[in-house]
Write a structure and sequence with these properties.
141 residues; mainly beta; Rieske Iron-sulfur Protein; 4-stranded antiparallel β-sheet
């Protein structure tokens, strides 16, 4: 698989600055009994293909990357690279995620390493999309 990377300066990579931002409306999500629920009306970032949000909060067991791929399917991953613990970004036009750091660790949508420095996969979470809402299972009770 050919690996496509976002163009970032050496300073952006050293700082580990991801492309994906937190949701513009921080109240678009809730977490209860292991389920991260996102109100799609309040998270317009996820309305378009390749739209993405990064959710990180003490209420969550791990930071979460949520995005809609080129086919319109929503995916969710633990937003920590298996190499250095940096954040991930979906790479538009591919079926991959890439770490924001110098290692350029790259993963497929199953979380498996396809390039870069990482030797560990990333965790993907089950996603259930319903009209107006996405439910992501972070852990079972």
């Amino acid at each position: 698989m050919a690996v496509k990377a976002y163009k970032r300066s050496i300073f952006q990579r050293l700082a580990g600055r991801p492309q994906t931002e937190p949701p513009r409306d921080p109240s678009c999500w809730g977490f209860n009994e292991g389920i991260l629920a996102i109100d799609l009306d309040r998270a317009p970032e996820l309305s378009e293909h390749w739209g993405a949000i990064a959710i990180e909060d003490p209420a969550l067991p791990v930071p979460v990357l949520v995005f809609r791929d080129g086919e319109g399917i929503i995916h969710a991953f633990c937003n920590l690279c298996g190499h250095g613990g940096r954040h991930l970004d979906p790479v538009s036009g591919t079926n991959t995620l890439m770490c924001c750091s110098l290692g350029k660790s790259t993963y497929d949508y199953d979380g498996q390493v396809v390039g870069g420095a990482s030797e560990k996969p990333v965790v993907s979470f089950p996603v259930r999309e319903q009209p107006g809402q996405v439910a992501i299972t972070l852990y079972e009770n």
